[in-house]
Amino acid sequence: MISIPADRIAAIRARRDEMQALMATGDLSAERFVATSKEYAEIEPVAQAAEAVQALRDEIAGLEAILVDAGSDPEMRDMAREELDGLKTQLPDAERALALRLLPRDAADERPAMLEIRAGTGGDEAALFAGDLFRMYSRYAEDRGWKVELISASPADVGGYKEVIASVTGQGVFARLKFESGVHRVQRVPVTESGGRIHTSAATVAVLPEAEDVDVQIDEKDLRIDVFRSSGPGGQSVNTTDSAVRITHMPSGLVVSQQDEKSQHKNKAKAMKVLRTRLYELERERLASARAGERKSMVGSGDRSERIRTYNFPQGRVTDHRINLTLHRLPEILEGQMDELINALIAEDEASRLANLQDG
Questions:
Q1: Which end of the chain offers a freer environment for a tag, N or C, measured as fewer CB atoms within 10 Å?
Q2: Which 3 state secondary structure label does DSSP give 314?
Q3: How far is CA 273 from CA 22, 41, 151, 262, 283, in A?
C-alpha cells in the first residue's frame, strides 16, 4: 500500500491555508491574485484528498487505542474492532487517491489537441479506414461537447482520406486523446473485394498538444514562405489566385502546406498553427529524451510507428495491444463510444506511474 508521510500531508494543508489567507487579505495585485487563485485551484483537491487520509488515520489510531486499553468496556472494544475493520479497508483507496493527486501532471493535459490521421498500408481501404477513424474521433468529441475544426484534408477518390488534420478544443482534450497516437490496424473485407477475403490495412494517428504563442517563439527570418495556386484532384487549379501557402521552418526542416481556404491570409494562419504545434511537440520529445532514464508508461511512449490497436470487423472486436484489452463493441466504438477504452488506458498509465512512485 502506498503511504504518504504525515509531514507531507501537513505541508500540503499548510500551503492550501496560506493561499486561502493570501486571497482573503485583499492586498494582492491583480496579477498576483490571478496567480495565487490558480495555485489554490490546483492545490485544493490535493488538500481535500490529504485531509481524507489524515482523518482516516486519526480515527484508526483512536480505535486502536481503545482496543489496547485494558480498562475499556468489552462491548465498546467489540464496536471499535468492527469499525476499525471498516476504516482499514477504506484507507488504501484514500491513500491511492492522494498519491494520484500527487503524481506529476503533464502540463499539456488541459490543452486543445491537433489530430492528424494518415492512410497507411492498404491503398484505398486504408484511406477509407482513415475516414472511419476521423468520424469516430469527431463523434467522441461531439459527445463530450468539444469542437472539431478541420485544418486540412486530402480526400481519397474512393472516399475517406489520404490525410486529415483537425484542431480539437474543449476541456481536457489532450489528457483524453494522448494515448491514441500510433498505428491503428483494421481487418475486414473491403467493398472492392469480390472474393470475400479479409484484408489488413492501417492508418497512423498523431495527437499533439496545441501550442500557444508564448510556448514557441518563431523568428520570421527562420521561415521561407511560398505561395501557389491551390490544386484539386488530378492537379487541376481550383482557383485563379495564389492562395495556397507553404511554410518551411529552416532550422528544423519542418514543412507545412495549407490550401483549403480561399484566402491566402487564412491559409497562412492555419499553417502557422500547425507549424507551432509541431515545433512544440519537437521540444516535448527533446525533453522526454533527456529523461530517457525514467521508466516509460505501460501504455507506450506515443510513438506513431507503434502498432497500438486492431479493429477486427468479422469478430466485431477492438483490441488494444498495449494493455491486452479486447472489447467486443466494435460498432459502438466506431460511433464514438470510446470512454471504456480510454478510461482503461488512463487507469493503466496511472497504475504504472504509481508503481514507479513506490519503487522510487
A1: C
A2: coil
A3: 38, 29, 9, 17, 16
Q: Do domains 113-214+302-359 and 220-289 have the same CATH topology?
A: no
Instruction: Please choose, from the candidates 113, 115, 131, the residue with its C-alpha nearest in 3D space to the C-alpha of residue 186.
Output: 131
209-222 burial: b if 16+ Cβ within 10 Å, else e: bbbeeebbebeeee
Residue 214, pLDDT above cutoff 80: no
Architecture of the domain made up of 220-289: 2-Layer Sandwich (3.30)
pLDDT above 90 covers a percentage of the chain that reads 48
What is the per-residue DSSP string for 221-264? Answer: GGEEEEEE--B-GGG-BS-SS--EEEEEETTTTEEEEE-SSS-H
Per-residue pLDDT tens digits for 13-23: 999 999 999 88
Residue listed under C-alpha cell 473485407: 189
Beta bridge pairs of residue 311: 186, 318
- In whole angstroms, give the CA distance from residue 115 to residue 117: 7
Which residue type occupies 12? Answer: I
297: closest CA among 96, 103, 102, 140? 103
Reply yes or no on domain 113-214+302-359 having CATH 2.40.50.180: no
Residue boundaries of the structural domains of the chain:
6-102, 113-214+302-359, 220-289
Q: What is the spatial order of strands in the sheet that 244-249 belongs to?
A: 223-228, 244-249, 254-258
Distance CA 100, CA 83 (A): 26
CB-based contact 276:215 (threshold 8 Å) = yes
How much is the pLDDT for 105? 76
Mean pLDDT across the stretch 194-201? 84
